[in-house]
């Protein structure tokens, strides 16, 4: 098995050739897609005959997860025009940060953003990011909670023409249950790793997990039952 791996000073053991890539992708995918820590993935891979350390898995995720994220995003299906926006808390090195998330009325992820603040500027930045995503449609309605930061950001984008005048901002807590359930999935994946050590690591896993999760759901919906794991 070590013939498909070579040593690199920066990445530890790295895959080489087609066989090496066949081992690397499942390692990174399992960490990003499921609620597993690096040591959990290490144990799973050792059971399959791949002698990699958890620190090597950490380096692989840092190096190759952005590439997987970029490959997955073009395969995301278009969403509808009803946005549900909310934010939750994530602890990074004993400090709370805010994870903004947006889904459509069917629960499909639009985008997300990790921010150190929870104000109108952060809300505006997140709205712009969602609108610039290639798989999103111009919103007809944006449903938010009672956070006072959303109306100023919404009004500014409408004045600029970024949002159409027919788009409306709706404050309705129970309609945001679909995005609140999405927060539970994020927390479920974070807990095995005992939180995040750096802001970049939290942003990397959140981004890649969301993209891989949506691609996995689309694949399961499109594939026949016999092809599903």
Give structural notes.
The chain has helices spanning 17-33, 38-47, 54-72, 120-132, 150-160, 177-190, 199-222, and strands spanning 5-8, 12-15, 82-92, 95-104, 109-115, 141-144, 168-171. The strands form two sheets. A five-stranded mixed β-sheet has the order 5-4-3-6-7, sandwiched between helices. A two-stranded antiparallel ribbon has the order 1-2. It contains seven helices and seven strands; from the N terminus they run ββαααβββαβαβαα. It has two domains: 1-75 and 198-229, no CATH class; 82-196, Nucleotidyltransferase, domain 5 (2-Layer Sandwich), CATH 3.30.420. Strand 4 and strand 5 (109-115) form a beta hairpin. It is 47% helix and 19% strand.
Features of the shown structure:
229 residues; alpha/beta; Nucleotidyltransferase, domain 5; five-stranded mixed sheet; two-stranded antiparallel ribbon
Number of strands: 7
- Morphology: elongated
CATH superfamily of the largest domain: Ribonuclease H-like superfamily/Ribonuclease H
Radius of gyration: 19 Å
Roughly what fraction of the amino acids lie in strands? 15-25%
Major sheet: order of its strands?
Answer: 5-4-3-6-7
- The residue ranges in which pLDDT falls below 50 over 5 or more consecutive positions are 218-229
Class derived from helix and strand content: alpha/beta
Instruction: Give the second-level CATH assignment, the architecture of the largest domain.
Output: 2-Layer Sandwich
Return the CATH topology of the largest domain.
Nucleotidyltransferase, domain 5
Strand-and-helix sequence, N→C? EEHHHEEEHEHEHH
How many structural domains are formed by the residues? Answer: 2
Helicity level: 40-55%
**Biggest sheet character:** 5 strands, mixed
**First and last CA, distance:** 25 Å
CATH class call of the largest domain: Alpha Beta
Mean pLDDT across all amino acids: 76
| Count of helical regions | 7
């Amino acid at each position: 098995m070590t013939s498909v791996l070579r040593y690199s000073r920066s990445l530890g053991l790295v895959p080489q050739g087609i066989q090496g890539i066949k081992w690397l992708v499942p390692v990174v995918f399992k960490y990003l897609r499921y609620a597993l820590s690096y040591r959990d993935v290490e144990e799973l891979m050792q059971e399959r005959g791949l002698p990699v350390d958890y620190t090597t898995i950490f380096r692989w995720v840092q190096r190759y997860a952005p590439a997987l994220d970029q490959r997955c995003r073009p395969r995301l299906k278009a969403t509808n025009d009803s946005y549900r926006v909310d934010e939750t808390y994530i602890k990074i090195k004993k400090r709370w940060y805010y994870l903004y998330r947006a889904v459509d009325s069917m629960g499909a992820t639009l985008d997300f953003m990790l921010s150190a603040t929870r104000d109108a500027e952060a809300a505006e930045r997140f709205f712009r990011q969602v609108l610039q995503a290639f798989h999103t449609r111009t919103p007809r309605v944006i449903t938010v909670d009672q956070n006072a930061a959303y109306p100023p950001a919404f009004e500014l984008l409408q004045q600029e023409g970024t949002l159409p005048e027919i788009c409306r901002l709706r404050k309705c807590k129970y309609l945001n249950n679909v995005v609140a359930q999405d927060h539970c999935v994020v927390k479920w994946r974070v807990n095995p790793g005992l939180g995040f050590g750096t802001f970049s690591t939290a942003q990397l896993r959140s981004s890649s997990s969301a993209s891989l999760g949506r691609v996995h759901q689309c694949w399961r919906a499109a594939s026949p039952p016999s092809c599903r794991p």
